[in-house]
Amino acid sequence: MKNTEPTDTATLVDGVLQLPISTAAAGTSMDFTLIDEATEALRDYGAEIGAILLTGTGANFCAGGNVRHFAAADDRGAYLHEKATALHDFVEALTAAPTPVVAAVQGWAAGAGMSLVCASDIAIGGPSTTLRPAYPGIGLSPDGGITWSLPRIVGARRAREILLSDTVIGADEAVRLGLLSRIVGDDEIHTEALRVARSFVEGPRVTYTTIRQLLAQSPDTTLKQQLDTERDGIAIAANSKTGREGVDAFVAKRKPDFAGVNQ
User: Fold this and answer.
1) How far apart are CA 131 and CA 3, in angstroms?
2) Which family, according to the similarity comment (predicted)?
3) Coil/strand/helix, residue 42
């Protein structure tokens, strides 16, 4: 099993689709060539993919959009409309993907970088990890879905404070708020995030897909609707190959072979 460092292109390694969103070039700002490549990779999703890992390949996960490019555009509004459209295509494809999304968040996650942290299922950071909306500082409103995802993570009032005040959030506070799942050593972030992603590859993929779907719909449904959906889902799962393997393995006191039924 390879333990690769993050690469500068979309790469499938041991069932994990690694999607870089920034590089050391241009101060680790969001690279839209990579974003477009990642969107295409998600649209071509195949059964060989068991998890998604978002990475940055420089000192930061993503320092946000390239403000110098914004400033140099002949029509800044048209330019940002184009870039926001590309980013939102990626966020939609990421959300629609059937497998868990893990983010390896080193250094800064600012602007759209913070938006993508909020779009992940599990975010691994280090002591130096720092998040910031960064939009008010340059007189722009948010994008990347952060006004949808952030209130669902931290609550509506705290989200208002963070976005309006352009709050800088350190690693410990980010864990407390639920923006980061946990902290490891700064030099261990990618290794741990990749380990977490790989754990999903060999797990019950159908179960993960259903969990993500249930969580995604829960804010917009009544308790009764959610209970009904959960009931129907677990009944379907019980007769699936994954459910049968899991229950039979438990009764037989053996480790379930989910990899075999994932094929």
Assistant:
1) 27
2) Belongs to the enoyl-CoA hydratase/isomerase family.
3) helix
